[in-house]
Structure formats: C-alpha cells, structure tokens
Amino acid sequence: MTDDNKPPTRSGFPFRVGRLDPPEAVREIVARLERAGFECWCVGGAVRDALLGHPHLDWDFATIATPAQVMSVFKRTVPVGVEYGTVGVFDSQNTMHEVTTFRRDVNTDGRHAVVEFGASLDDDLARRDFTVNAIAYHPKRDELRDPFDGQLDIRRGVIRAVGTASERMREDRLRALRGIRFASRFSFHIEPATWAAIKASAPHMGRLSPERVKQELEKTMEQVERPSIALEWWREAGFLRALVPSIADAPAERFAALDHLPRGEGDAGIEGGAGNAGGSGKGATLNRLAMLFFGEREGAVAAATKALRFSNADSAWIASLAGARAELGSKIDAAIDTGPLAAVDVRRWVARIGRMRAESFFTLTAALWRVRLEAAGDADAEARLATLAKLAVIVAFRDPIEIADLAVDGEDLRKAGIPDGPRMGKVLHALLQHVISDPALNTNAKLLELARAL
After folding, report:
1. What are the tens digits of pLDDT across the range 294-331?
2. How far, in Å, CA of 131 to CA of 164, rounded?
3. What residues are paired with 63 via a beta bridge?
4. 69 exposed, middle or buried (CB, 10 Å; 0-12, 13-18, 19+)?
5. Which of 135, 133, 129, 66 lies closest to 100, judged by CA?
6. DSSP character string of 339-399
C-alpha cells in the first residue's frame, strides 16, 4: 500500500447512514441521569456502528456528572476507572455500560493521560481519536452532536483523526493500531495526514504494553473480515518490525490466507480457545492468530507469543501448529499438488501434529491452498485438498496414532520381560510406528510378539 491509501472500495459507496435506535434500557440510563439534573449523551462505538447500520450492544455514555454523582444515581455500579471518570452501570437487562464524566486531557505520555473534569461535551469529543468516534447522540431529543463531521467521513468511507493527526497519535500510540483496525474492518480509506501520523508512530510503539498489542491483534482477528489488509498496513507502517518482529518478513500468502478463515464474531478473548480451535468463536480467532506464525520455527514462535503475553496454553498451541507446518509442510504440499495421497502418510502426519490439533492444522493448510488455487486453479489439487482435510479428521479420531492407543501397556511389557525405563520407552515408540504403518497390528497378541522380537 502507498501513502495515498486505499483498501478495497466499499460496495455501494457512497452509502446511506443508518438510523439510531438504542434499546429502551440505554434510553433509561440517559433519562435517569437527566432527571437527576446531569446532562448525558450516548457516545463511542455504538453510535458509530448504529450510523453504519451495524448491530452493537456496547452502548457507552458521556455525562457532566462526576463518578461519585453517577454512583449516587444508580444502585448497581462498578468503579471501573474512576480516576479517569468512568463508572460501570448495569442496566435493567444486567448489561454493564461505561458512563464517563466529560473530560479533557491535561498531560499524556503516549499511553496514559492525566485528565480533568468539568469539561463540556464538545471538549470531550475533541479529545477522541477519530471523527467517526467523535459523534454523540441524545436519544430523548433524537439529536446528533457531530462537531468534526464524523457522519460525512462515514458517508465518504474515511478514517480521519480529530483535529491535528500527529497530536492525536502522540497522545496515545495505541490509536495508530486502532485506526488501522477501523479502516480494515469497515473497508474505509485512511485520510493522508492521518496515515502519515500513523506511520510516524512506528519508532514510538515500544510505549505500548505487550498486552495491548496482543489485544489489538485479537480484536483485528475477531472483527475484520479480511485481516490481510490490516496486517499489510501493519507491515507498511513498520509496526510488525517494531511489535512482532518474528513475522515482519512473513510471506504475503500467509496473510492472504487469513481472509479464508472464518472470524470469531463476539469473542471476548481467547483464553482456553485451543479446546475448540477447529470451530467458530474463540477457536476461530485462535486459528487466525496461529496463521500469523504458521510455518515458523516452534521455539521462535513460543518466544514470540509469550513475549506478547499469550497464555501458556495458547502459546503452546500456536507454536506446535507452526512447528508441525515447518517440518511437514513441504511433504503435505507435494501430496496435495501432485499426489499420491496415501493413508499411511496421513497417519504419520496426524501422529506428528497431534490428535487434538489436526483439525486446526489442516484448516490452516487449506486456507493457504485456497490462496494458491485462487491464483491458478487446479481441480485435481482442490479435490486432493478436500480429501485430505476429511481423511485427517477421520484418522485423528479413528486410528491408533498415540502410545495410549496401543493395545499393550507398560504392565503387559513388564510381564513379557521388558524392564522399565528407557528400553521400554523405545519399545513402545517402535510399536507405535509399526501400528501407524499398519493399524491391523494393534492387537495385544501381535504387539507382544513384535515387542519380544524388538
């Protein structure tokens, strides 16, 4: 991509702005604060998404009331960030909404701001990142407050910083990543001055905590239909080199493959996602994150994901898939490309990959191949790919591919005269290789005969 910036053209552009119709529980929060004498408006992503015609449940509010006053109006509250003016308020449907006092920034270090209260709504909107996020809505009066022409930018399909772009990025370096996510999510362009300020943020990205970088990657995988756009923007801006250097030179094919993996809409995070990695939701997001590293060395991936503060389980899952691809990828690709597709080879591959990781591994492999087949169709390769994906899952849950699947165990081998220790381990591994080659050997009698011979 170049400085004059251009993700894919929006279909139907220009488009009609949607109608705002917040739920009754949201209207009631505004009404209660205003009955208590405090001006209150709906703000943030829910207003933007409603104007875009997208469903959004996460309605937030800005008010003249201080945190203490907000907590006095509502019985069920959580002090989620009172030092920044934010109180969590539960509505009648038990959904929590953030209610934040009008504020202005006094000082910032590029990540954390010192704020002061007593500002106006317009002051509050002026401190926001992008014009599309600086729109307020008053449900009782059906009034939009839009001092920075955010609605016009929504119609034009543009991400533009509020005010001076370089100042907005300097106030909070995370905004550079957010701008890319918004643009790729909505297939918007990035206004040239805003893009220049985003690129200029690259040397300062070290101010961001690993947890926030990981969170942005997760949100991108969850929210963006075509993550390849966002990742290529990350690469062009220098953010991959600064934040995830292990994939800074990853092949474009790998990023393009992300677009062939379903996104996990509504994911709140991916902790524990490995257990459902072949499906939707958390598993879908984890698959996309794994694709970023698919084919890199396992040790390097483990180090990179731990540096980004992935959980131990998710780091191990992603690293294992990457390492298996690095080891087996050329053999598997050759079988898909020209054949033959032998069942014994599939058993060996699945045994190396792991029973619980096989579905994800071949889902990622299929996504890579869809990129290749888009460029140059090959009906035979496509048929072999489909066959392999089905066969791998069948093999994973039908055939003996792990030592625990053997029809003999340590007690059987001890009775056969094989001592505990390394020797028994070698025998068990050798038996497994025989069974992978020929599952019919997996009977107690045949394995004990083989064990004695070994």
Report:
1. 999 999 999 999 999 999 999 999 999 999 999 999 99
2. 11
3. 40, 101
4. middle
5. 66
6. ----HHHHHHHHHHH-GGGHHHHHHHHHHHHHHHHHHS--HHHHHHHHHHHHHHHHHHHHS
> Cβ(88)–Cβ(81) under 8 Å?
no
pTM of the model: 0.86
What pLDDT does residue 7 have? 44
Instruction: Give the CA distances from residue 135 to residues 32, 58, 150, 157, 238, in Å, rounded to whole numbers and listed in that order.
Output: 21, 15, 6, 15, 30
Q: What is the DSSP-derived secondary structure letter of residue 20? A: P
List all residues 6 or more positions away from 387 whose beta carbon is below 8 Å from its beta carbon. Answer: 341
Instruction: Phi first, then psi: give them for residue 99, nearest 5 degrees.
Output: -115, 120
- d(Cα 153, Cα 269) in Å, to the nearest integer? 30
CA–CA separation, 223 and 263 (whole Å): 7
Using DSSP, state whether 40 is helix, strand or coil.
Answer: strand
Q: Where is average pLDDT lowest: 146-155, 268-277, 316-325?
A: 268-277
Neighbours of 206 (CB within 10 A): 11
Please, which residues have CB within 8 angstroms of residue 426's CB and are 6 or more apart in sequence?
none
Q: What tokens does 202 get?
A: 């690259």
Average predicted confidence (pLDDT) for the chain:
89
3-state secondary structure of 437: helix
Q: Are 276 and 284 in contact (CB under 8 A)?
A: no
Taking the chain, what is the end-to-end CA distance rounded to the nearest angstrom? 60
- Residue in the block written with tokens 């087996």: 328
Are the C-beta atoms of residues 42 and 59 closer than 8 Å to each other?
Answer: yes
Cβ contact 286:270 at 8 Å: yes
In degrees, rounded to 5, the angle at the alpha carbon of residue 81 between the alpha carbons of residues 28 and 305 is 115
Nearest to 245, CA basis, from 234, 261, 230: 234
- Using only C-alpha atoms, the chain has a radius of gyration, in whole angstroms, of 27
3-state DSSP call for residue 198? helix
Q: Which residue has the tokens 């003996």?
A: 400
